[in-house]
Amino acid sequence: MGVKIIDLLKDTDKTLFSFELLPPLKGQDIESIYETIDPLMEFKPPYINVTYHQEELVYRKVKENLLERKRIWKRPGTVALSAAIKYKYKVVVVPHIICGGFTREETENALIDLNFLGMNNVLAVRGDAPEDTKIFVPEEGGHKHAVDIVKQIMDLNKGIYLDEELIHKRPTDFSVGVAGYPEKHSESPNMDSDIHFLKKKVDAGADYIVTQMFFDNVKYFSFVDKCRKAGIKVPIIPGLKPISAYNHLQYLSKTFSIDIPDPLVREVIKCKDNNQVREVGVEWAVQQSRELIKAGVPVLHFYSMGKPDNIKKIAKQIF
Questions:
Q1: Which CATH architecture has domain 5-318?
Q2: Where are the alpha helices (DSSP H) in the chain?
Q3: Which of the residues in the chain have pLDDT under 70?
Q4: Residue spans per domain, the chain
């Protein structure tokens, strides 16, 4: 099987560079993804993450004053895309496996496909609630929490499949990452509760943690300290997202339940257009990155959102 992320983290004495991709919208081709990846390969990322998305509910007008509800997949093809990236760039790929919209059997089938393709690294996440609902509701026969995906993967690693009557079962060899939230998950009542459940994911078999984006390193360092005191020993990789548009002040804060530091807000407000905002975002992320590297973080993981230019500007200054 391929190289595991946890082994990459153990075998390096310097901070690594990685980034996350969104699959292209349905109907688009893979070239848009290559256009995102190509400018970033000069920084030699040892791995690339690819997100997974569940179907979404949309409303379409069929007659006057009459709407039709329809569920569609807006970003299909995570497994196929991951395979294409792996074999084109000869890089480790980490596809996400999510609870939302998938049964346990569908999850197992996706993992079997990944195993066939020689991809043995995944990030297990619950996924967000659909926009048309206020709470997360698992698929019937699916998982409610990311820890349940971790447990299912650990069972596969032991050769335990959902169909107990299978013969000649072969164990898989997956390495699993999970998500952590330096400012707590939006649905958690407090940070202690959030870390309690994060530890359950690690105890179930997760090898490392990747954090939600944050803009104040103090939040990350405090989070790591609380994790260590709670007995969480695995590597904790910081996730970074440079602000690139004025409306990110509202969008990122609302969507991801994070705080934007006052100094950054003041600098963005001064900007005359989004080009200036992007420069402010790059400079802020560079300063964040330098401090994190000095602290010895194993990886700087960037959320690209399909836009590589600002990530490249940051990487050029720090790698």
A1: Alpha-Beta Barrel (3.20)
A2: 5-10, 31-37, 78-89, 104-116, 146-157, 191-204, 217-229, 248-256, 262-270, 274-294, 308-318
A3: 1, 53-76, 128-134, 136, 138
A4: 5-318
